[in-house]
Specification:
Layout lengths: L4 E14 L1 E14 L2 E11 L5 E7 L4 E5 L2 E6 L20 E4 L4 E9 L2 E5 L5 E7 L2 E5 L1
Antiparallel strand pairs: 1-2, 2-3, 3-4, 4-5, 5-6, 7-8, 8-9, 9-10, 10-11
Length: about 140
Amino acid sequence: SSSDSMMLDINSAISTRMIIMFRITSVDKTIFQNGRLRYSFTSRQVNKGKMSTTETRDMGTVYHSLKGGKTIQVSESPIFHNMSSLYLIEPLNIQQVYSDVFQEFVDITYVSPHNYKIRLPDGNYNEYYYSNGICKRWI
């Protein structure tokens, strides 16, 4: 039933200046059914550069992820949390979350009450701040 499904659709455009202007456009679409990731799509473009897309699909017993024309197997275990789900669910007692963009699980570090940090494989990090279980701010 539809009450067992959740679809997240996140579109963002970020502009920042660090000597030169950076414009980052991203699209994230995620579908969970019965708490389990069934499908995700991410798209990233920096300035007018090449768009990078990643698609992750639940194949029943494994997940396949397609990026740059190449498909890899990313998990044999069910995926219950990905980066998009962090906007709606505070990661209480969750040690890892699936990064669709990087096609791997990343660690969640508890910083302080309602504040968590994720270090990404490229050396960058995101910090998330929650109020009543929902992300109110991220950097």
